[in-house]
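Q: How would the structure tokens look for this protein?
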Amino acid sequence: MAANILNETNMNMAAAFRLFQLDNLWTCRSDPRFCYYVYIPETVYDTDPVQEFRVLMIIHGSTRIIEDARYDYREFAKKYNVAVVAPLFPCGMFDPDDINGYKAIREGSVHYDSIVFSILEEIHHKLPNIRIDRFMMAGHSGGGQFVQRFFYLHPKRLLAVSISAPGRPTYLDLKTDFYWGIRNFEDLYDKAVDINALRDVSVQLMVGSNDTGSLGESPYGSNRMERMKCLKGNFDENGLLSSLVIIPGIGHFDGDRERSAQNILFFKKILDTIIRNGE
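A: Here is the predicted structure in token form.
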């Protein structure tokens, strides 16, 4: 049976189906084990003039609840010409009980950063006015771990990152092995951390004021609040351009809307600066 047998031929319906492309769940064609949600304002189809779009990629946490990102960032996306992209990395890729593999970017034969780039290429191929040379990325909890390590691997591909409350951050500590430090980072990833390149990326660190539940003792603190404050100090010591936002009244598992609102404020500032500078 032909793959396109159900394609709509009525022009009005065809136009409606075309809009579904901009607000849906798509298979990653380079590796169908993965998929991704998108929300792209329909002005992406404008031709007079053609509108240039930037990408904001939202990385899910351990729960894999990510589809709401299409709604939380919708008005921001419309105002600033942003394509919102939210990959979905399933549990149990190699170990049937594992939920954490994606957070380290490498898991078995899977390079999750390569999946990210494949998704971006697929979107750009469909809609060439969506820029993918440098993009924005945000994640909470396990998503924050992913964003931080992606940032260490690919700073030159990023405009800005928002790292929210990772339980196991990786510090720019050359005396400690991964995951706490980066002494053996190059051995694991075949790529050293380029601290000079990190300094060119704006970083927002976030944590809820009530996110103080014990995670166990470590040299960097026993809860997410302590570890995020330590990470801010570590970034300051290394000359990174970072801010720490403590969101009042929320913990770790609540406050999704508050975190999204703070992300929007942060990324608006980034895009306003780009617009002013004519980049």
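The beta strands are 23-27, 35-39, 54-59, 82-88, 106-107, 110-111, 135-140, 158-164, 202-208, 242-247.

The longest strand covers residues 82-88.

Upvote if useful.
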